[in-house]
Amino acid sequence: MTTQPELSEAQIAVHWREEGYYPPTPKFVGQANASEPAIIERFGEVNFPECFKEYADLLSWDSYWHTTLDTSDPPFWKWFVGGRLNACYNCVDRHLESSRNKAALIWVPEPEAAPTQVITYQELCRRINEFAALLQGFCGVRTGDRVTFHLPMVPELPVAMLACARLGAIHSEVFGGFSGAACGGRIADSGSNVLVTMDSYYRNGELVDHKVKADEAVEAARALGHEVEKVLVWRRHPGEYASEAPMVAGRDFFVDEVLREYRGKLVEPVSMPAEAPLFLMYTSGTTGRPKGCQHSTGGYLAYVAGTSKYYQDIHPEDTYWCAADIGWITGHSYIVYGPLALGTTSVMYEGVPTYPDAGRVWRIAERLGVNIFHTAPTTIRMLRKLGPDEPSKYGYHFKHMTTVGEPIEPEVWRWYYDVVGKGEAAIVDTWWQTETGGFLGSTLPALQPMKPGSCGPGVLGVYPVIYDEDGAVIEAGSERAGNICIRNPWPGIFQTIWGQPERFVQIYYAKYCRDRRSRDWRDWPYFAGDGAVQAADGYFRILGRVDDVINVAGHRLGTKELESAALTVSEVAEAAAVPVMDDVRGRAVEMYVALKPGFAPDVSLEDKVSAAIVHEIGKIARPKNVWLVADMPKTRSGKIMRRVIAGISNFTDVGDVSTLANPEIVDDIRHRVQSEK
Ligand code: PRX
Prior knowledge:
Layout lengths: L8 H4 L13 H6 L6 H5 L10 H4 L10 E4 L7 E4 L2 E2 L1 H13 L3 E6 L8 E4 H19 L6 E5 L5 H12 L2 E4 L6 H11 L3 E5 L1 E4 L2 E4 L1 H13 L6 E5 L17 E3 H5 L12 E2 L3 E7 L7 E6 L1 H13 L8 E4 L6 H13 L3 E5 L10 H9 L3 E4 L1 H10 L13 E5 L5 H11 L5 E5 L33 E4 L14 E5 L9 E2 L3 H8 L17 E9 L5 E6 L3 E4 L2 E4 H8 L5 E11 L3 E10 L7 H14 L8 E5 L12 H8 L14 H13 L1
Parallel strand pairs: 4-17, 6-7, 6-8, 7-14, 8-11, 11-12, 16-17, 16-18, 18-19, 19-20, 29-30
Antiparallel strand pairs: 1-2, 3-13, 4-5, 9-10, 14-15, 15-23, 21-22, 22-24, 24-25, 26-27, 28-29
Helix pairs in contact: 5-6, 5-7, 5-12, 6-7, 8-9, 11-12, 14-15, 17-18, 19-20
Bound molecules: adenosine-5'-monophosphate-propyl ester (PRX).
Family: Belongs to the ATP-dependent AMP-binding enzyme family.
EC number: 6.2.1.1
Pfam families: ACAS_N, AMP-binding, AMP-binding_C
């Protein structure tokens, strides 16, 4: 059951006024992939699910499917049943004939003076084949096996992903910034025998030791009863090892050394059923255990190719840059699979947008001739704060820009439009999730005008609705918020939570399912976990999570994960994580911690709690503040009232506290916290 939240991001969301529309420029419309309104009709509900043939036909199939959508086992939807294809072949091999020497990936490393790598489709194909041969020959990886990567933003990451896809093996990339412990948990959950990592990578001008985390990951997996057989270590500078961590004999291998045996080797792409899993992407949920979202081969690839074409307006001749990390779903779908399936040039970079200065991004865009740009509100806010005039110093021209991952404030949107886009670029604000594979809500850039702060209507073939807690529809234009759901399945939807099918049904479908025995998709709306409002024009404004998930700088953190991490500190008796508004990161985490009897609060304990969270999850989870409190506000049954704590942290109404078991604590905490903020 999805419980009624005690507090949610949506509840602390700022309520914006309705904004005016911005039309795209005629120049943009003239060249857009989707410029005829007929496309909207073609994807109308009467044509569902067959409309998605249009997306699937962007791919090359080894055998065509016989059933577009199989609903016989809800909500385990099956798309393009009977079809067979290989995702790597679709992203690489099939482009060779026409585009062998064209750049597939352009990689911009740190430091800035380091040479940019241009990887042609031919070169990418060679690297993938060799690494696939190594995985197969040296590690014994077979179709259906899981392989975990803990890789930073280096070309070896897409190479490894596509090598797995070539073999029909399931990759599971763990964001490089996550801790070794977090990686180990994901290795054990997926049952991967192989971990692919790198000795080091650059960030903010420093070479960060990364291999140390692999050792922690293997230990953490072992503690969960899972043994990693091989650790493949790429070297950031081949031949030079840049890590303090010793290589473990018989377990750890330098990829560049082992690869020598596989030079020039070719591996046939394995023809996979459309429904075969392509990858796992772990994300945070309402319990401490991350969920391995399992994405399909055919449905997923068709969906990211179609949405890349129509929503990001990618043409093969574009130079497209999604400045996200491939360690997140955005990078999987919209750096690697979508753009490469369309045969375009996809830029990826190492480091951060603000180092060595807030002009880096625009310099790269100018130098490479980037014409489509994709980033997150948190980056936009940061660049606006640190270099509000930087974009005007560079001679790039974007025809199109995307924002993703969090709500974007209208004034930030306007800076993105006026200053970054120079008033020329169409913007799409794309609302979606790790689970959904690709976009759910967005304007079609040439056909539907932009409205700052709103993502737009449901995307082609996706029909969202807002329900109240009882399942009644909240009408557009009512100005009432509710839970945004999707009424229908779409090809990019994840297939299940790896190894936890019951949890999959419970979390995403149980809340609004009308009849558990029904095989009609109309009875199984997808519960997204976001609060939203729909304006009279049908555009949705996403308010934030309604569950126990906090979206920090576009990254999902589970309150339970944060609290369990705090509880690893032996002095801590109780912990509660709450979201607070943050100027740059959208939301930040504040931790409230009560100590066990006999321990006095001091700064070192605050630091210890922060360190424990960084150790268990990673630096992205470091709390903005740790408040050591004498006690937590609790109900009479002993439940911590996060709503009250969040109200204090955000200087908003804490609601009725009269029924608490310890109402007096509220003023104590308020005094303490608000006087120090
Ligand atoms: O709350 C929504 C927010 O990010 C959540 C999904 O996070 P994740 O699975 O990490 O995927 C992020 C990249 C797709 C959603 O439940 N979110 C995502 N996009 C938007 C958004 N909130 C507002 N506007 C968006 N465009």
